Amino acid sequence: MGKKFLIVLDDIWNDNYVDWDNLRTPFGVGDKGSKIIVTTRHESVASIMRSVPTHYLGQISDAASWSLFEKHAFGNENPDAHPNKKVIGKKIVEKCKGLPLAIKILGGQLRTKLDAKEWYDIFKSNIWEIPNDKILPALRLSYHHLPAHLKRCFAYCSIFPKDYTFKKEKLVLLWMAEGFVQELKSGKRMEEVGDEYFRELSSRSFFQQSSGDKSGFVMHDLINDLAQFVSGEFCYMLEGNKSHQISGKVRHFSFFMEDYDSYKKLGPFCEIKCLRTFLPFMPLLGYSTPQLTNKVLHDLLMTLSCLRVLSLSHYGNITELPNSIENLKQLRYLDLSQTSIKRLPEVICTLCNLQTLILSNCGLTLLPTNIGRLTNLRHLDISGTKLKEMPIQMNGLKGLRTLTTFVVGKHDGLRVGELREFRHLQGKLSILKLQNVVNPMDAWEANLKEKEHLNELHLEWGFETNDSHNERDVLDKLRPSTNLQKVTVKCYGGTSFPIWLGDGSFSNITVLYLEGCMHCLSLPPLGQLPSLVELSIKRINLVERVGLEFYGNGCTSIRPFQKLKTLGFAKMPEWEEWSFCGVEGEIFPSLEVLSIQDCPKLKGDLPNHLPFLKELIISECYRLEAWIPKDATSISTLKLKGCKEVVLSTIADRTSLESLRLLEFHDVRMLHGLSSLKDLKMVECSTSLLLFPSMLLSLEIDSCFTQASFPEGMLQCCTHLQRLSIWSCPRLKSFSRGGLPTTLKTLSIGGCEKLELVLPEAEETHSYYASLETLSLISSCESLKSFPLGLFPKLSFLNVSDCKNLESLCISEEGLHNYHTSLNNLIIISCPKFVSFPKGGLPTPNLTSFYVSNCKNLRSLPESMHTLFPSLQHLTLLKCPELESFPEGCLPANLIRLKVRFCEKLTACQTDWGLHTLASLQEFEIEGCKEVDSFPEKWLLPSALTSLEIYSLPNLKHLDKRGFQHLTSLKKLRIWNCPELQSFPEEGLPASLSLLDISGCPLLEQCCQREKGEGWPKIAHIPCIVINRNLIS
């Protein structure tokens, strides 16, 4: 957006320069004065990232240390009221040596110690004197004084990777499965006891709430170190290249998943007979679908009979579970979510100790017939599955605490009334296919009213409803407990809602969604829900009027919608009137977001008192002529589409407005008074504007202007503009005579074929583009034949795509002597006449990425790339058939990744590439050349190469042993769509190879058949072998 920013990257551990350089690039568009602060415990990270001297954090002061300790140890009490504790506390703080985490944790620990003697014991503990550079004594002390049951639970948390965000509910279920949590004689459920354990550890600062996920928790790295220290050899977290020196004492094993998890990686853990936990984690940036080799799955189920926790979640190649699952008699926790399993074997019903079964978002269509035999099952998650009904015997699962989904049967499955058997349900319950309820009394028998531990209820019918009266009775008799916090009613077919939906006794409901209730004629009295914060009403097709009935039919006991912050109406085709008559007091006094979309008949006014409104969205309400409320002085974001101009006219003096989206307006004007507007987007609008607001930072214009140029001065008044996007304005020929604001940093132009860039006659003259850092020209500027790079001294990103007449990039003779130090990313795509770069080369010493695609007449790359592109790391050449060779002097020495695809002439001259001299080259891809029958040629590739990918070489018959024999670092080899390739070199493939991926090579695939193919001995040593996208080893 081009705004000034302060970004704090806390606790960075990645010391890969490429990753940091990629992350840093987008921040280049920030305003002057923008800062990035990085905190790290690793000197190597600081050396890569810093542009100013490193600042080493010291200890906090004595006064600050005591203040922090006082807060956590004494709470709201005055320390002077406990003089003995205060004296001891001061001495303990001294021992913490100004380290905030240690002070915080010990303070929380001491808060539960009421006797000063207990404080003194901690002060005099020998643990302060035990040397250990990794674990702070104060942290060891905090663990030492935990009760035994909390010690076990905390140590177990060493299975979590550092920086991993975990859910309280999942951790409690894992603790239960491992036997760390027992039901108390007091009658407390295991889940409640586990929650108490969690709260105790959290109150002592062993866990802290995640900053990125309010429902998640993390452990500080030092706390994670402590957990690993105290768990000793019993817990093992496998990550990266960690040594496989595995103790036979390991009981709890976790690891990061990879695209292909092989037997070599996981096999050793299948030999630990007493292993209790097998728990994979998806990487933080994992987007692929991992696969697990069948041998690991086989061995897990055959040999690890002591397993209590087994997760196979996210392994997409698992389509069925072998019958050998019955061997895991001790299993308490089984997670098969996000797999391709469609049905479970009946033998799973013999796992009599199973407590938790997670099947969410897998391909499941049917539950086992005898699932009712799992009498200890407490948590069953089947959300996101395609189950058609619930098996009859399921009513035997009387101990269920979690049942995410109940599908009402039509013929043989459970009736909705069977829900009465599940008396202990908690959390969320979705009841689907309610159209199958024949007798409304069956809904009454479900006894939802008594299920007081449910906090979220989702009720859904199918679209094939044809009995409105019956459905009204069903919903009425499904009246739930008043403890609910969130309710969704979807595809309900009744003509009216029951009384309970809007009853003020439901004082805990904060979120309510009504969707697809096609036959309802009016809305329920939702204004009487005193705690309602978010309300969404969508596709209620027959409602014509929203009025007094919505607020409470004149009920004065509760003022309507006092706490509502978000209100949305959408797709209500018959809604004509929104009335506020007869309502006493203020309506919606707390509303912050109001959205009305696709209500084409709605007329009249909006609520007239919205003092806290921040965001207003009105879309496709063609008859709405409402004035935006005058007292909505806090509104900062406004999105309008397809509304009457009178709506727009009411915003002329909205000084608080910062973001405005306008779509489908016929005459946009009077925006210059929006003195705080920073972000403006106009789509399919005609305008008679003469001036834009002067404080604009970002302006996007799409399919708007029919004129040949902007009105004089329209852009020049935007003295702060940093980002400008112009799309699909085919008649636009030029900007106004004054050019563009000199503050502009990002310019994107697309679909403006006739537009001509304003180009000063010489580079030494004043440039309109002096501040420009990012430029994209897409299907635009047909008159542009030569792009003058010298006019853009600060440009860091250049993308020129589909510019039909562009022939070259040019730099004046003077410019050749001035290095363009800012440019780090250059993209040229689909420019059919593009033939050349500047003579003498392109002096861009900081260019890191260079991408050229579909330039059919390009014959050569820039000269002297090896000297003028010293920072180049990524080079992609795609569909440049006339490109004949790399420039003399070879490619830049720091190149890491090279892709050559469908460049026939270039690929035919492999011997001239000189890639063997590139010591930094790690990844190479080649695709699409009919001339290649043998690859790679001797010494074509450097020995440091780690990844080689070969695609679509239709005449490739041989893999040259001379080209492979020195690739001693190669880890990944992918060969796709090479139908003539028959075998591997006689000497085999490099011993370093960890992944072989073959697809679309029928002859080679036959050669690679496990144990049978002629080539199998040559590849048997490779940990991961993938054939046609299936992991076979």
TrEMBL record:
Organism: Liquidambar formosana (Formosan gum)
SUPFAM superfamilies, A to Z: L domain-like, P-loop containing nucleoside triphosphate hydrolases
Residue stretches making up the NB-ARC domain: 2-77
Domain Disease resistance protein winged helix, chain residue ranges per copy: 159-227
GO biological process: defense response
UniProt keyword annotations, A-Z: Leucine-rich repeat, Plant defense, Repeat
InterPro entries: Apaf_helical (IPR042197), Leu-rich_rpt_typical-subtyp (IPR003591), LRR_dom_sf (IPR032675), LRR_R13L1-DRL21 (IPR056789), LRR_Zer-1 (IPR056845), NB-ARC (IPR002182), P-loop_NTPase (IPR027417), WH-like_DNA-bd_sf (IPR036388)
PANTHER family named in the record: DISEASE RESISTANCE RPP13-LIKE PROTEIN 1, PLANT BROAD-SPECTRUM MILDEW RESISTANCE PROTEIN RPW8
All residue ranges annotated as the Zer-1-like leucine-rich repeats region domain in the record: 325-389
Upper lineage: Eukaryota, Viridiplantae, Streptophyta, Embryophyta, Tracheophyta
Keyword Repeat set for record: yes
The protein's name: NB-ARC domain-containing protein
Limits of the R13L1/DRL21-like LRR repeat region domain: 417-539
UniProt key word Repeat: yes
GO molecular function, one term: ADP binding
